[in-house]
Amino acid sequence: MEDTDNSQISGYAFLEIPEVEKYFADLNTKLLSGRHLQNDDYYLFLTLKQHEAAFAFFYKRLYNLKLTYGLHDGVKYYYLDFFDAGKGKSMDLSKYRALTELQTVIGLMLINMYYAKYFQNPKVITWSDIRKEILFGDMKEKYQKILFEEVKEEYVVSEWSNVEKNFKNTINSFHDLGWVKKQFQQSEEIKFEITASIHRLADLYKEEIDNFAVFTEKISNWKEE
Amino acid sequence: MIDDELFNQYDLLLPSRYEGGFLILALHDKISRKQIPEYFSDADIRATLEELAVRFNQSVWQTDRIIKTLNHFFIKNVPDQFGKYYLSDYARRVVKLIQNKLENPYRNYPLRETFQKYFTIRTGEFKTIHDLEIRFGRDFVSPYKNVIEDHLDGLQDELQEAHHKLSDILISEQLTAIQMVHQFVTVFSRFGDRAEDIGNAVHTKDRFLVNLHEETDKFYQYIMEAQTPESDEEIEKINSLRTDWAIASAIYNDLSSFFESVDQKLALIHKQILFSTEKLLELQENFSTRSNFRLAIKRLLNRTLDQTAYQKGDIVFSTEFPVKNMPYDKVQFFHPEQYFFIVQKAGLLIEILRDENYEQEQLQAIEQQSRQAELINEWVLSALDELSAGKEIMLDHWMNRVYGAENSVDLALYAGFELVQRTVNDKEYHVDIQNSLETITDMQLQLWKIRITAKSVAMLS
Fold first, then answer.
1. How many domains are there within chain A?
2. Which of 24-53 (A) contact B at CB < 8 A?
3. Residues 6+ positions from A186 with CB-CB distance below 8 Å
4. Are residues A88 and A136 both part of a single domain?
5. I need a surface site. Which of A199, B115, B220, B264 has the fewest CB within 10 A?
């Protein structure tokens, strides 16, 4: 981690600095609830950036968590991670949360869509984009199989409404994580902007991506058994 | 405001594809290829319509109705030759307009050259206002303006097209990385050229406006240089100069506002180019990484979907599929419905133990005080009785008596005071106070010599 901040301040003394004092409660709650903080949380991001080492020390000593950052398309985002990646299971149950199947699938789908909109800024996704992906995209049959139980020519409104509900809930949770910026109310149609921090999900699967052959083999072995 | 006529005639002015739109395009094409003559026949129209019907999988059109529609603006009857038609000028212009939109003729022609060609001023070019008007008057300059506008439209279309191409390069999987980069460089270099061309064009245009301003200013100078008019002839001359100046400044204003709108369009295009360029530069640096990463994500998503199944409105992974954890330690605040901020202290009962000595002391003190009051009262009453019996009381002697009996200085003193109090304001008694001190030795007191008597007694004596 970079040591760009007021490194002369040691221990917990940084908590006495007025701007840290002002933003600490908000910053701490958000980081601990899994949020990825980037430029649009301007003051929180700035405070964290200026006292990066002090905050890192704080989380290491008091929570045994690593304050780290990702960098994607020129956008930097901070978040808390485990020191020993993936070993969260051995910890206190109340201290971590597993991504749900829906979060994982929809998250990967969104990273994929991020690149389809690579030359656009901001990268705004609407419910119609998602429907198009499910109905006409490269992987339409696979999407339909898991979202609707069976692949059909057409789906009725009630079938769509369950899928929409699943997407809405997932997008809401991504909004809290800082992976997307929601632009709709619960009763409105889905519309949001994908932010660069969605790539954190790809980081979580880095090992699988880097050793894809091993990963595939592991899964197919299980199937054969 | 568009007039109603335009709305009413719209379908005739721009017929839809199967109402003659396609037919005009096809006829125009055939004429330009010399497949049919300029003056074509009914039979040519029918044959063309049949070809179109086959090509677009349509049933045969109602030829007569279509001819009737087109006869308004698009095709004209050849005079004296029944059943022969020709394409109207309007039809040719519409087709040309559509073709230009799709294949802009200025696309590969630098914008700066267009500017220079139409908007350059040579020194001493305009001797009279007539020269200036012919060159840049509103009516004369309008075709040049159109050319510039077509140019800008073409540029914008081209940018949009390039934008789509770029996105396609990034998401196409069939091409190898090298081919992708090659394609991308071609598109990119065109952007660069365009940006440079726009810069040059703006420069040319700015210089033109400065020159034009100088030229139009000359007409103002002519007015200033003219002598104050005296004769009718001179007045007429100065008026004519004024008219010239008005025309010149109108020309300048017209072109300057035209270029202002050109400026705005150019700025917009420039901005688009900059954003795309920025993204492209980023991409150029790490193109293969980015494209590989994208493929890896797609592969992972594909595999993830294979390991996922529908289950009661939700989805589940196969047991082997790795689920990822993230730190989550939500800080929760519980809000009680009511909160008493002012805590009342519990009332402690302290049992005070009985202090008997203190009680006795206090009882004695009280008893003594009341006994003293009683004694004083008794003494005063007896003194008053004595007075009524005609005796006189010398206060010092009387107090001495009280002291002798009760053995208390306080009691004797208070009794003395009380007696004086009772008698001094009472009309029945006479209190005689003499200005000489009497000493009561036993009590170590000194007081005025006071003699108290009852009045009736005093009178008797």
1. 2
2. 28-29, 32-34
3. A168
4. no
5. B264
